[in-house]
Amino acid sequence: MTSMNQQSGKNGPIEQYDVMVIGAGVSGMYALHHLRQMGLSVRVYDGASDIGGTWWYNRYPGARVDGPGSPFYSYTFSEELIQEWDWEETQSEQSAVLAYLEHVADRFDLRRDIQFDTWVQDARYDEATQRWTVETDTGVHASAPFLICAVGALSTANMPDIPGIHDFAGECYHTGRWPHEPVSFEGKRVAVIGTGSSGIQSIPEIAREAEHVTVLQRTPQYAFPAGNRPITPEERADARTNWDSFVAKMRSNFGGFPYDNQPRSALEDTPEQREALYEELWQRGSFKFFLDLYSDIATSEEANQSLADFVRAKIRKIVHDPVTAKKLLPDYFVITKRPILEDGYFETFNRDNVSLVDLREDPIERFTRTSVVTRSGEHPIDMLVLATGFDAISGSMLRLNPKGRGGMSLAEKWKDRFHNYLGLTVAGFPNLFMIHGPGSPGVFYNMPLGAERQMDWIGRCLRHLDEQELGAIEPLADSEEAWGAEVSALANATLFPRTDSWWTGANVPGKPRYFSVYLGGSIYYQRIYDMADNGYQGFVFEKENQPGNAEAS
Ligand code: N01
Q1: Residue 549: pLDDT above 70?
Q2: 195 Cβ inside 6 Å of ligand 1
Q3: Could you tell me the distance, in angstroms and rounded to a whole number, from the CA of residue 423 to the centre of ligand 1?
């Protein structure tokens, strides 16, 4: 393999690398480190001004890890990182996670190979040279045999298309594109659209400062106590002393966390026993709530109903005004939208300066320069917060829209479904790899660990190509079909596809509607390594510099 050099193209010099990576978030940072360890020349591009990806952009008030928390939402590739980094809280706030990632970037001198403030506008494959070329908005023209898309599963903001929204003359912020400068809510009338994780984390914070907050809710949410607390010195010492065994457990656990999977069905217990378990988990809080639940909450309607009833009763109890409480009651299967951790969200509706609009009965009609108008009337506002989420999982790949064989665009290929193989590769797009793309466990797995494991597989694949003097790898269309069927079969055995959510693409108008996450958890990693061990089953290879000379595997 080559190291970085330059060649001349018709538009000036073309930088040459072994691998180009798009995205300098958690996945792209590890990709860079891993590929460098392999002795490859790597260039990373990111539109942001520094590392961190989602943690660089999502600076809204209240932003915190809302998964199973620190210290297990972190890299595992370097033992030193756990030894030298002091996580303070179980649900670390955005600034703490970003500080950790900055430490990783410093520690491994990552920034020297990352080009920031650089947006990749075009990425296309050249069949004759078996190389990808990219062009950026800063005039960079670069080429490499391999393109790794670490573009983020939750990074393309979903902007609602509501009549008059662009006429609104007050301040307007999307939670996923929050300004770096402080935002003051003091004395302001703020409307928040969206009650997903971002809305539910930010609304209590905004309400503490603002004159008035109007929450515009399309779908009520089940939300669970975050249970954030300081990490004790004993826990920190335990993680440091026993890091290897924690990592081994994370790698074998379904979701990538160091906990035991719960084998018991909810239906084995009496209603009183179930209630007692739910109450215990509710009091403790944290994402561990879902990990310590019964095994069939996401598969049995009856089991699901028992938890849904429990949470609805909690909401009714917390929220004083019965009319508001009723609007906050979700009416779909619990946990079939991404579970949310909250800290004082439901209590916020007991404040005098907070009101709730149920958009299902009182929809937004339009915005004016100074207000939002719903069917029932006008709400004057100074600020609009869009907590409207993301074109998740596939959106950032489609925004990049790479061009593969014959100039075919990914948008064309993914018109009806996000065809891919193993959630890593796409037929017609040789030598392109995705991290946390559709068809992978991505957002259903510990994301830093998942990124490491997918990247390790990609690294091994690149080594295989090099050793075998192969120039290109690409999945067969049949392999994509079979993988897509497996993704859907796993999903259809659960209640998840039966609810509209960003997992199913229902939050973005016009998006293909199906559950595109691989629900096999840690089994996925076994599967992809088995395929590699069996000679990269389902892929087709080309010899180096002999395009068209394909060998099926
Ligand atoms: O986005 P969401 P999010 N009109 O899609 C509503 C991760 N995360 O940014 O439910 C009116 O969940 C939409 O309504 P509905 C986490 O995985 C992590 O909150 O589609 N409303 C919903 O209420 C999370 O799940 C962390 O009917 C509209 C809301 O906007 C994921 O990111 C923190 C609308 C969007 O909720 C996404 O969370 C935050 C419209 N036109 C998030 N369009 C941390 O770990 C959308 N909505 C720190």
Answers
A1: no
A2: yes
A3: 23
Kindly give the number of the ligand 1 atom that is closest to the alpha carbon of 338: 25
Amino acid identity for residue 44 in this structure = V
pTM: 0.96
- 199 touches ligand 1 (CB under 6 Å): yes
Contact 498, 336 (CB under 8 A): yes
Alpha-carbon distance of 541 to 553, in angstroms, equals: 8
* CA separation for the pair 72, 246 (Å, rounded): 9
Cβ–ligand 1 distance for 327 under 6 Å, the answer: no
Q: Are 439 and 483 in contact (CB under 8 A)?
A: yes
Q: At what angle do helices 243-252 and 233-241 cross, to 10 degrees?
A: 80
d(CA 331, CA 316): 14
Tens digit of each residue's pLDDT (9 = 90 or more) over 171-207: 999 999 999 999 999 999 999 999 999 999 999 999 9
pLDDT digits (tens, 9 = 90+) for 467-495: 999 999 999 999 999 999 999 999 999 99
Tens digit of each residue's pLDDT (9 = 90 or more) over 4-22: 577 776 667 899 999 999 9
Ligand 1 pocket mutation, candidates 97, 177, 507, criterion most atoms within 8 A of CB: 507
Q: CA-to-CA distance for 146 and 189, rounded, in angstroms?
A: 50
Say if ligand 1 is within 6 A of residue 374 CB.
Answer: no
